[in-house]
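Let us practice reading a record.
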Amino acid sequence: MEEKQEKKVFSRPKCLTDVTFSFCGGCGHGIAHRLVAEAIDHFGIREDTIAVSPVGCAVFLYNYFDIDTVEAPHGRAPAVATGIRRALKDKWILVYQGDGDMAGIGTSEIIHCANRGENLSVIFINNTTYGMTGGQMAPTTLLGQKTTTTPYGRDFRSDGYPIKITELIAQMDAPAFVARVSLDSLANIKKAKRIIRQALETQIKHLGFSLVEVLSPCPTDWGMTPSQARERIEKEMIPYYPLGILKEKREMDHY
């Protein structure tokens, strides 16, 4: 009998280093890293891509991506990325931020970067908590969610409501592509892969600012197993943060 030829269907993206992720078990950052890396490989732009990551779990990007990276102060990645974009017009700029970092500490930076329509791509990881610093309430923390700073659950009367930063950016005139995806299931991960690639393509076509919010599990700070964390995204996060493309421009504005 002829031996069956094995076909390789899964391998490490070229622009990821051969380093084991140090993220907690069940964390979504590893999946998000792979999807971003696959998008970069798809367009063959590894040598011309510069990533900017700030303080928080996102900062470890420089260990895992075999591309040029810049570490920004907490919340300031969009400002740093803007400077790189203005100075190096022939490069592709990727910003990778968590929700506490972007929607809290760096609210001003991301809002004004989006409003200027800077031609760069932002990956926004939303796990409804300050992951690295101990699990405090973030701007995205859901009502009733218990954190180290809301031990009885987030209360709108004292803590306000969760901020839908992606909706805020989508209603602006300048942004070209704004979407929200999730890592809770294989089907949604496949959709996330396609949309992250689309965000990068928006920049390559010089259409302007693009942002993809990624609903991501944080089993450690949520006090859950990875399976429970996945279910929480499906049952609690997606109803409040609905998935889909919120804004899409197919050509550059002319004024």
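A brief commentary: The longest strand covers residues 92-98.
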